Structures are given as C-alpha cells and as structure tokens.
Amino acid sequence: MKKIIFGLLCLAVSTQIYASDKYRKPESFVLQCSDGNVLRAYDMALTVVEGNVKLWQHGLLDTSRPVLMAGKGYARPWTRDASYNTFFCAGLIYPEVAKNTLLSVLLKEDDVIRIGGQYWDCISWVTGAWAYYTYTGDENFLRTGYSAAVNSLAYFREKEFDNTTGLFCGPGWSDGIGGYPEPYNNAGGSSFILDYAKHNAHIDKIRMKALSTNCLYYNAYRKAALMGKLLDRPAKECADLAEKADALKAAINRHLWINSAGHFAYFLDAKGRLDHSQEGLGHAQAILFNVADTNRAELIFKNQYVSPHGIPCTWPLFQRFSNDRIGRHCGTVWPQIQGFWALAASSEGNLAIMDREFKALTDMALASNDFSEIYHPFTGQPYGGFQVGRLWHSQPAQTWAATAYIAMIYKGVMGMRFDPNGLFFKPVVPPRIARLSLAGIKYRDMTLDIKIYGSGIKIKRCAIDDRIMERPRIAATMTGHHIITIYMEDDTER
Fold first, then answer.
1. How far apart are CA 486 and CA 425, in angstroms?
2. What is the pTM assigned to this prediction?
C-alpha cells in the first residue's frame, strides 16, 4: 500500500513538473509597465494559467496530452472554458495546449465530428477555434474546426432553432438556476438549469431564447463562413452560412432589443415575453461580435449597470435575492464576463469603460492574491453567491479569470487584433499607464516586441524596425524578430 501511495505521489509530482517545465516561458511574453499593480496582477495571471496545464485524454485526443483545466477546483476542461481561454490569450501563449483543449471537447460519432458539452452554448467552441487559427495559421486544425462547426450548426438548427422567431432556444450564460428568475429556479432542489425541464413534467425542454446564446450562434455562423472561404469550400455553402448569420443577427435585434430601455433583453420566454434583466455576457458579446450597431452599442454602454467592482453577470437582482444574499449567477462579478465587457469597450474605443473594468479586476485579484472564480459586486472579495438555499464557494485559481485579465492587456490596452492575414493594433491606453511593452511574443514564425508610449485611443505615429509606418500591422507571412513602436496622441517620448 505504501508503494502504491508513493507511486501516486510521484506521478502527481511528475505531472506538475511536466506542465511547469515544458510550458514555462520566462523569455516570452514579458510585460513591462509603468503601473506596478498591473505588473503584479499580470504575473499572477500567468502563474494561474501555467498551474492549470494538466494531462488529459478525452474527445479527439488519442493519448493523454497537456490541456487547460477550467481551474484549480475543476478536474476537467469545459467546452465554454476551452473556447474562452483560447480566445482570450491561451491560443497565443500556449498554442499546442489550447489546440489539445479544443480537441478534447469534440465528439466523433459515425465519422461525424461535432462539438460536445452543454448543448445550448457549446457552439461557443467555434469562437475559440477561429481565434486559435488566427493566432497560428494551422490549416490542419482549420479543416477539423470547419467540420465541427458546420456539423454542429446543422445539428442544433434541427434540434433547437425556432422558425417563428428565427432564434435558437436554450438557456443563457449560466448553467445554474441562480442565473434565472422564476419559474426557472424550480428544479426540484437541483442547481442545474436543465433539471427545470426534468422536474416539470409539462415542459419538454427549455424554450427560452437567450441573448448570449444567440450571439454565440451568430458568431459561429459568421466564423464558419470565413473558414469555408479559406478552405475553398463551394461558394454556395459559404454563402448559406453567411446568410444564416445575417438572418440571426436581424432576429436578435428584432426580438430582443428593448427600445424603451436602450438595451437588449436577457431572453424571450416560451410565451413570447421579454425578460428585461441585463445579461452582462450577452451585452458584451452583442457589441464585440457586431450584433449591435454603433448606436445600440453606445446605448448599452450608457444603460448597462456596473457595480463598484465590475459588471455583474445579471442585473438587477431577482426577487429571491438581496444585497445580503446575492445570487451565485445573479449580481455577482465573474471575471470572464469582465474580460468580454472590457474587450467590447476597447473595440468601440471606449477608454473609460474599458479601464474601469480593467482596474476593477486588477484590484480584486491583488486584494485576494488570486484570480478567483466569482467576486462580490460590493466588497470585491471572492464570493460564491447563493443558490438552492446555500452560500456556494468561489473556486480558486480559475483559468478564464486569469486569461481574461491577460486579454484585457493584450487585446484591450495594447489593442492587438488578429485575423488570418496578420496582426494589427488599436491601442486603448489608460492615462495612468505612460509606458507599456511586451517582449518575446511568439506569433506564427516571428518573435515580436511591442513598445507603446503615451495614452489615449489615437495613434500619433508608429514604426516597425525603425521604419515609419502609416499603421502598425504585421503580415502573417513575415518571419524573424521585429520591434513595433507605437506613440499615442499624448506621448511625451520623442
């Protein structure tokens, strides 16, 4: 027995060493910043991500390979976590790990590849898959990604599409009943939203049409169409995907926008009634994926409630919750949603909103010395929230909390924008950050160093390898080492 226990301990230690040594990159992605708090939080975020690289075999992985677990308290990757972590930054920092994680949540039945996971939002996988491709240019993966995308879209269109509204059925961002108003919290004592239908015999399935879920389907159609074009799929096939994307975007705006409130509804229920709650992730994705036009994006920024410590997952509190008993999925601050909200603000050049969210997560991470799963909106402390009559635990070292923070720096502040043809920059730099650099970026067949001076949203001038450029863009076909220097409108460096 002692030998068995010793062997298991050795295996655990060797697995951690494998993950730590193989994927630690001290010379890569080195941040320098005039704000010391950002540096400390960034280093902590990298440590959290690195610590959650573990061996795993599932899905299309034929052997155990390193993947990103959802967090320290979770023993597996989840589809939505795999997607969002890849999208935020993991596909850039740890491309092989990100690819393994995405492959591990795919299913193969009768030679048909489809996305696994919780059915209503597993289509989020396509968002992560596309991001991985733009980081790496991996065409073999692109072929797998396209198959998974089109097969899954066809499958769920048959199972979950509502022809009357042109929207997809299914819950919203939350898999817990804490994220839904009555009667959806009546799940027979279970915390799982799908048990609502199981517990209520007169309901065959959940027929709400949620904002975030439909935004994810829209983005999946749009990205699948782009994948098809890159793979030289038949023009009609690509056009059909693009047309379905356009139709879904129109349906979201037609059925879920609340004109009098100046924001989207959380969901449309089975009886055609709108829930007027604000779904944080849905609003962020509607802006970031261009479901909302510029005018509606501005209204959302104006009308979305943001707590003292960040955008809440859902607001206002449902009647069964209060400021003393905030719901696990209602009123709490989830860092991955903060990440999407900050990137949405950055995409629209809204410096004030982006920096407010960026600073809120910086402060909460440093105060708790961790990137926790969930935070309290009024205290900023880790807080799991109430659900099914009890206070839950906020899990430690949550991967997508850390990757969201890194994305706030890379894609938010530094404005890194990836597409199949290369990388360009639209920085959105807070006034409190006068100098910012990121060295040793591994991108395609290049190593990049980025230096940004000054703040604001307007680039005054830029250079690549000391050559003055009209705009800072790196072609995906370039190789070797390059230095990108960007001076913002109020820089003091010359």
1. 9
2. 0.94
